[in-house]
Model the fold of this input.
Amino acid sequence: MRNLDPVWPEAMDDLPLRVTETARLFCTPSQLFSSFERAMDWKAWMGVEVEWGDGKVEDGAVRVVRMGPFVMEEVVTVWRPGAELSMYVARSNNPLLVQFAERWTVQGTSTGCVAVWEAALRPASVGHVLARRLLWSLATAAHSGFTELERLALGDEAEARFTTEELEP
Done:
């Protein structure tokens, strides 16, 4: 494991590789953030193993993410339940990364919420093409996992009713 350069939420736009996925979900922002707190939910919808350091999610919390052979220690920079979750990778064994961060922003709607997931990275000079593929793979996993994320957030309340559509700015 090696240290990576930190990325604060306001600096994500400065990273050269970025991806954004948006979903309209039928769960409330509160339900969605409850799912974010449950480590087992990340495995079910995103395909990554997550361990929250001391189990408490807050600003400064550390979580370990295992994705195949790669391990990342992430630091939560913003935890505003129902509104925003931002993290950056502080340490990783992935040689492609120099910086990596992600941010969730959520807005409540009359039928649930709109969730926007953004990820950005600065690759190592030798890993630019592979880092692009990694980011694309994460975006694909996030997009395809939204249905499961919604089902987990809703729990027993209702069957997932995920819709995909172009959202007005």
